[in-house]
Amino acid sequence: MTVPDRVLDVGRFRTGAKWLTVGALVLLWVGARYVAVPEVWSLLDRAELLGATSSGTPPAAEGDGAYTKLYTAAYGVSVAPAVAGVLLYLLWRVRHTVEERFPTPLLLVLGALATCQVASVAAGWGDPYTGSALEEQLEGAGVGLWARGAVERGWYAGYAALVLGAAALAFAFTRPPRHQPRWIPALVPVAVAAPWAVLAGPYF
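User: That's the sequence. What structure does it adopt?
Assistant: Structure tokens below.
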């Protein structure tokens, strides 16, 4: 049995439990993709902390700061499930070896976070049924014109962070097991933060 097989140990679930878990994750994906993510976009647009006003456009006194805050918030939200999953894994690894089986609650939580992250990516990728791109979906979610550009760029920049973060994790897992808890927090934050600065464009 390989290390991933031993860690995940899917055989712990009976057939009925497997189907129940898969069904729950599918429902979670649908809810996140079509309800939660559009609502998050709308909340970003309305958040006074990020510069929103009753008139929509931030006041001139805010300058470009409001757009930078909105871009950063959208970027952070787009990668939040993945970051939370990595943090949970690191907390678990503090007292466990790389070959130990994940406890069932941890495995389910990681599965739920992964499902939410996939839903986030799918939402930004566009709607294959209507052919609408992210900008059109933002408009459909009620996001104001002033906020669409920042949210769209932040969401897409998050894709780059996910790719770099996955590459950083893959490299860290090639290191000796006892060194992995050091490599992951050293590499992943850089991999996640770099795209925010590089791809910010006018919002940096």
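The mean pLDDT is 86.
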